[in-house]
Structures are given as C-alpha cells and as structure tokens.
Amino acid sequence: MPDPDDLTARARIRQAALAQFAEVGFQKATIRSIAAEAGVSPGLLRHHFGSKEALRDAVDAYVMDEIRRANDEVSEASRTGDFASTVDREALRPFQRYLARGLLDGSPTVATMFDQMAAMTTQWIAAADETRTDRPRTDHRTRGALYTAMVLGVPLLHEHLSRVLGIDVLSADGDRRVALAMLDIYSHALISTELAEQARAALYPEPP
C-alpha cells in the first residue's frame, strides 16, 4: 500500500511544477527550484517523476483531467438547469496561467491539450445545433476549434486585456467580470441572421 506521505509529496511536487511552469516557463523552471517550492529534495522529485519532462507530462495530464471534470460539471448543470453548485472558477485559475504560458512558449504538449479542448467544445456546439432553427453553414469541428481559440485568447492576452479593463483578468474580480461579459456575448447575437446572410452573400457569393 502506498505511503500517504509519499502521495502527499507527489501532489505537492505536481502543484509546485504547475505554478513554476506557469510563472517562468518550462525551460527556465528547474528541478531544484520546483523541489524547493514543494518542500522536498530534488532526489525525491526524481524518485516520483524521473525527469522534468516526465513531470511536465504529469502536470499536463492533471490539467486536462481538471478541465474535463469542469466541462462535465457544466454540461450536467446545463442539462439539469442547476448552476448553483457548478465549477469552482477560483480552482481553475492556475490552469489558465499554465495554458497561457504554454501557448506563449510554443509548448508541443499544449498542441495536444488544445486538440482535446477543441473536441470538447465541438460536442457543445453539436448539442446546441440540435435546437437551432437556422441551418449552420460551417461544420461543428471548425466552429469548435475557433471557439476554443477565442476562449484561450483571454489568458494568452491577459496582460493587454487587463490593461484595457483596468483590472487583472486572472484575479478573482477580473475573472468574474470576464465571465459575466462572456455570458452576455454568448447569450445575445451580435448581428441578426438576416444581416449575417447579407454579409455572407457579399463576401462569398455563390458561384453562377
């Protein structure tokens, strides 16, 4: 049976790596600095994870598990209409910073994470299309990928967005402001379906 203290140390190392990778990036973070933040020895870190690359893989898997869990909770709340006890956005904030740093650094592992997030978003769009009265002109996968890119644009561009809004959008108050604004955007069409058809015809006319 695993030693409970051993499991606790492993979790602390993972959390410390998540914070360090988000703050300074994978290349600048070191085994020694992560171990120090976790309150363990570099040797114990290597015992649990072997290498910094393997540790990043473990953090990636943890982040994606939490994102999937949050997605499932929101999906269930959407189905039942009960959002009273849905996702803890405070708990998800470190993951936003982690993803933003990975996107800035061009991390190869973030590419896989983006694909998985886009797949989840595509499922949401497919479900929403079932209640649409107007026929979509583009496929689920294209719209899912674009929605994912738009959402990830918030943590990626958080410094510029924070400057314009006058508040750190990755703080509790800033996150609340962004979330409420996103709900407004999602729930109210920017243009009418008629205007969209006119724009589509003008930009991309049907061949004769």
Automatic annotation (TrEMBL):
State the Pfam families in the record: TetR_C_25, TetR_N
* UniProt keyword annotations, A-Z: DNA-binding, Transcription, Transcription regulation
Q: Which residues bind DNA?
A: 30-49
Listed transmembrane segments: none
| Keyword Disulfide bond carried by entry | no
What residue stretches are annotated with the HTH tetR-type domain? 7-67
Q: Which domain of life is it from?
A: Bacteria
User: Does this UniProt record's set of keywords contain Transcription?
Assistant: yes
InterPro entries on file: DNA-bd_HTH_TetR-type_CS, Homeodomain-like_sf, HTH-type_TetR-like_transc_reg, HTH_TetR, TetR_C_25
- What's the protein called, per UniProt? TetR/AcrR family transcriptional regulator
